[in-house]
Amino acid sequence: MILLVGGEKGGSGKSCLAQNIAVYFSKEKDASVMLVDCDPQKTTSDWIQARHSAPDLPWINCVQLYGKVRYELMSFENHYDYVIIDCGGQDSTTLRAAMSVATHVLLPLRPKRRDLKTLPHMDELVSSCSMVNPKMHARIVMTQCPSLPNQAGRILEAKEVCRTYGLDVLDSVTFARNLYDDSEELGSSVLELEPNGKASNEIRSIIEELMAAEAGSENNGVSGSEEYLRAVG
Ligand SMILES: Nc1ncnc2c1ncn2[C@@H]1O[C@H](COP(=O)(O)OP(=O)(O)OP(=O)(O)O)[C@@H](O)[C@H]1O
Ligand SMILES: [Mg+2]
Predict the structure, then answer these.
(1) pLDDT at 222 > cutoff 60
(2) 62 CA to centre of ligand 2 in angstroms
(3) What's the CA gap between 153 and 174, in Å, rounded?
(4) 20 to 30 A from 6, CA-CA: which of 14, 28, 64, 73?
(5) Which atom from ligand 1 is nearest to the alpha carbon of 183?
(6) What's the whole-number mean pLDDT along residues 81-99?
(7) Residue 88, pLDDT score
């Protein structure tokens, strides 16, 4: 499985999710994991450095990769149970190359107007990548949601806006919780700081829902594009 956590909206929680998901598979599923940092900001590489400096946190494999990353990712897929990619920021060759081989794509967005404004471009990106990679499942996940009950409508409305673009949205969300930020700072994860806490259950729920998606359900029968593959290596 190659799981790409991507999207172009800065600060939406891509690195945080990628890190927590890597810990989930490694710690709770006892699986072999390769975490790939495709973001030149190196947030996840910094996190892994903090993690490996801490004496009590289990090792997670992590590499930095940029550009035409398809073959490296396919090679990792052959050697690890789960390849988790943190692909930040703008629409880049790296993001498109990773999407051309990903089995699952998670696009975090906050339920805010400026995040939702990236939806037309996300839709275009997912559609064009689906042409060369019909087995890919792309899902939006709402992150850093306000937890006040009177704000619940905002989350539902944001999900509805995503659906109007034809993009699938997970029911599971993350709420705004300090634990996400605090654990990242320590090279840790919410699953390790509070295994039975609400944030941990949010992470588990997101992964379980994502994995439950039926392979190729929406995109079957679409043929690949040689031109696209040349562009992304
Ligand atoms: N659910 C959450 N609740 C509270 N804080 C969160 C949550 N998710 C992420 N954060 C925090 O928000 C900040 C931005 O998150 P993160 O770095 O994961 O975003 P990003 O999408 O990777 O950003 P960039 O586009 O810069 O790579 C971090 O400090 C992170 O710890
Ligand atoms: Mg990031």
Answers:
(1) no
(2) 14
(3) 15
(4) 28
(5) 31
(6) 90
(7) 79
Choose which residue among 9, 145, 181, 198 to substitute to test ligand 1 binding: the one with the highest number of ligand atoms within 8 A of its C-beta: 181
Report residue 111 as tokens. 């339920």
Domain ranges of the chain: 2-217+224-231
Ligand 1 pocket: which residues have CB below 6 Å?
Answer: 10-16, 39, 41, 43, 88-89, 143-144, 174, 176-177, 180-181, 184
CATH of span 2-217+224-231: 3.40.50.300
The first and second tokens of residue 102, run together, are 């990903």
| Max mean pLDDT range (91-95, 128-132, 187-191, 220-224) | 187-191
* pLDDT (mean) for 108-125: 95
Query: What strands, in cross-sheet order, belong to the sheet with 2-5?
Result: 61-64, 33-37, 82-86, 2-5, 104-109, 137-145, 169-175
Using CB atoms within 10 A of its CB, is residue 66 exposed (0-12), middle (13-18) or buried (19+)?
middle
Among 8, 12, 15, name the best residue to mutate to test ligand 1's pocket (greatest count of ligand atoms within 8 A of Cβ). 15
pTM passes above 0.90: yes
pLDDT, average across residues 125-129: 92
Pocket test for ligand 1, best of 106, 177, 180 (most atoms within 8 A of CB): 180
Nearest CA to ligand 1 atom 11: 181
